[in-house]
Amino acid sequence: MGTTKRCLISRAEIARRVAELAERIGRDYAGRDLVMVGVLKGAFIFLADLVRALPFPVIVDFVRLKSYGAGTESAGEIHITKDVEESLKDRDVLIVEDIIDLGLTLDFLRQHLLSHRPRSLKICCLIDKQERREVEVPLDYVGFVVEQGFLVGYGLDCGEQSRTLPEIFVLEKK
Ligand code: PRP
To answer: How far is the CA of 99 from the centre of ligand 1 (A)?
Structure first.
């Protein structure tokens, strides 16, 4: 049995929501020294669009995390394979993530970045996918709430495929 892709969120909807998020973030952080930390690989497209929609320049940094679990399930231990390079101490930090699913990744990253003693730490997540949540993580900015489904496109991949598509699709069995 194969899979097909059904468009769930169009380019126009993504662009509109990114602009709204950027406006809110722009208001909330006006006059501050903001460091945005993108979570590789998935968040690179969202982060790139978001920073270009902000009314002021920000510092950008990245982390990369790996979760080791069985098969495609992301359950299990999380490791940092690339850490931040900026000093976060006493700075306003905003994590930028593409999707929260189980919540383990953001929970781990939040604790890790808090240990750097930032002035503030918030989270901006494009997609809040709720069906499999195991750990609740405080999300300060959310693009879209999606109840269920395997999503690809706009940074999200399935075995490294479909990551660069400009829309967000849900994979469905044929
Ligand atoms: C995905 C996604 C999040 C994480 C969410 O990354 O981009 O970072 O999983 O998982 P959780 O909420 O269930 O913990 P993935 O590990 O697939 O890496 P990638 O971003 O490089 O594709």
So the answer is: 7
